[in-house]
Design a protein that fits this description.
Glycosyltransferase
Length: 435
């Protein structure tokens, strides 16, 4: 059925017409106008800000496609994150706003085709069907943030409403994966439904894979649950204010409360050296893994996502653990230190995690140190890569990877250029009871 739906969607657009490159004069002008006494910063920021426009193309059906980089596919997560810095320009530039609406429109089609898929091709074929909870969160949050930044509610059409319906239905179904879901994947630990690592019912939502695209060990992925709490708060507001559908708004709010209760009941673990911290994954049966992964949502990113405040004592305990050698994926080298991932070489750190350390830092000294490490990671092309050897940045993975460049643009804009941070639901009077 999903394949037939994909073919139907593809047949309704003129695939024969080539996709058109995106030209955004305001972004080009902003990059060229940026000057810094630090030449490395100037070069890296300019390259980073322009990177998303190089990855984006307008498709024949009026939507916009955002390639992840050197892989010929679009990830729902990556694309939403790659265009985030352009939200700062959307209010003043109709062309940028139009591009963002076109990207959101395409993501709505993806979710309708297959809400379990995480990546698609230009012609709407499923590239990967790894169920990652955050892949449903990112389109909701991008649409909500666009609305809040621009005041433009025209994107909330019937097609986007159907995508939200599919996302909400899937989340509700996966609260009880064992009894309600038919999802399987060959890369899960048992090669099927993931039942080799069973879960207890917690109110949280089962996820097959991490944002790294690696299979979960335990299937309640706490960073993704945190992101879902925020996304559901935003969806509740959209359904209530824009679509005026109180039934759906109440469903989103109820699910949000259940997930939040699950996080606080099962996702907080006591450790002898750090006190109470958030686990990375739990199964609801007493098992947990305490670590972090560089990909976002991560535990480190909880305040950035809008889930908790940076000075929350549980978050602060967690952050101390994550940025220590007790975290199995925290690595220290000669020029940089940070969190890596099982997805890449052992010992490699990810710019995504280094930037996130800066975005969640509590003082300017740490933010400047992070910036220095990021600039030192430049192997000569002035771009940020997926991961690198913290003692030798010439050794890195992914020659072309758009996401960290977008996040770096946001980091410089908000922490060094004085641009106010983008809004999130937890800062807009939605009920919030984080740790």
């Amino acid at each position: 059925m999903r394949c037939l739906l994909a073919l139907f969607v593809a047949s309704t657009i003129c695939i024969a017409r080539p996709a058109a490159a995106v030209e955004l004069q305001s972004i080009v002008s902003a990059a060229s106008r940026y000057h810094s006494a630090n030449g490395r910063l100037e070069r890296m920021y300019r390259a980073a800000l322009l990177d998303t426009s190089h990855q984006a193309t307008m498709a024949a059906d009026g939507t916009a496609y955002v390639r992840t980089g050197d892989i010929p596919a679009e990830w729902l997560r990556d694309a939403s994150a790659q265009v985030r810095p352009y939200l700062f320009f959307a209010r003043s530039d109709p062309t940028v706003a139009s591009l963002l609406r076109a990207i959101i429109a395409r993501e709505a089609k993806y979710v309708q085709i297959d809400p379990y898929a995480n990546a698609f091709t230009l012609d709407y074929r499923v590239w990967e069907e790894k169920f990652e909870l955050d892949s449903l969160d990112y389109p909701i949050m991008l649409a909500w943030t666009y609305w809040k930044v621009t005041g433009d509610g025209s994107l909330f059409n019937g097609d986007l409403s159907l995508a939200f319906d599919r996302a909400l239905q899937t989340m509700e179904r996966e609260q009880d994966h064992t009894h309600s879901s038919h999802y399987t994947h060959k890369e899960l630990h048992d090669g099927k439904r993931g039942e080799a690592t069973p879960t207890g019912y917690t109110g949280m939502i089962w996820s097959g894979f991490r944002p790294s695209d690696d299979a979960c060990k335990y299937h309640y992925l706490i960073p993704a649950e945190m992101m879902t709490v925020v996304a559901l708060g935003e969806l509740e507001e959209i359904e209530r204010v824009i679509y005026r559908n109180l039934l759906k708004a109440n469903r989103a709010e109820t699910l949000r409360e259940e997930v939040q209760t699950g996080i606080q009941t099962y996702g907080v673990i006591f450790t002898p050296n750090y006190g109470y911290v958030y686990a990375y994954e739990v199964d609801g049966l007493g098992n947990s893994v305490i670590m972090d992964d560089a990909n976002i949502p991560s535990l480190l990113s909880a305040p950035y996502l809008g889930y908790t405040k940076p000075d929350s004592f549980i978050y602060q305990n967690t952050r101390k653990f994550l940025l220590s050698r007790d975290d199995p994926y925290y690595y220290v080298g000669k020029v940089a230190r940070g969190i890596g991932s099982a997805h890449t070489n052992d010992g490699y750190v990810w710019p995504l995690a280094i930037i996130m350390q800066g975005l969640t830092a509590g003082n300017d000294g740490e933010r400047r140190d992070v910036l220095g490490e990021l600039l030192a990671s430049d192997p000569g092309d002035h771009l940020l890569h997926e991961s690198f050897d913290p003692s030798d940045p010439q050794r890195y993975s992914r020659k072309d990877f758009g996401w960290p460049n977008a996040l770096f643009s946001e980091y410089v804009l908000t922490n060094f250029n004085g641009t106010p941070a983008l809004p999130s639901a937890s800062t807009n009077d939605l009920e919030f009871r984080g740790g």
